[in-house]
């Protein structure tokens, strides 16, 4: 499993915005330069973040981007779901997984007893879903502010004239 470069760039851009002076808009040129990516590429990422209410954009000479909510209310999970999508990470594609002897012997949930044979879970999917829930919980607990609070001095590029 690997997150896209867009997710990494979105997180770094948000850290840059959170680290800049409060109320100061950061232009796309400054952001893209600090990340080493093109303006047009980063604009697409920032547009997704704006549409989801994570950043605000303003136009004009002093325009640019700022966080739309406090950094401690923007979790890594929020950003990942905006950029990567909200789909499940694992889909059981083994057609025989539901007919495996172990699956037949497993206890059925109320949903499975309701007469929906297609709802019998793939045994591998049960493990993968558990792992995904733990990862989501971890990512939900870590915010942009958490990164700022745990960064060593000088480890965050940009912002405040650095």
From TrEMBL:
Organism in which the protein naturally occurs: Paenibacillus glycinis
UniProt superkingdom: Bacteria
InterPro entries named in the record: TR_Rrf2-type_CS (IPR030489), Tscrpt_reg_Rrf2 (IPR000944), WH-like_DNA-bd_sf (IPR036388), WH_DNA-bd_sf (IPR036390)
Official protein name in the record: Rrf2 family transcriptional regulator
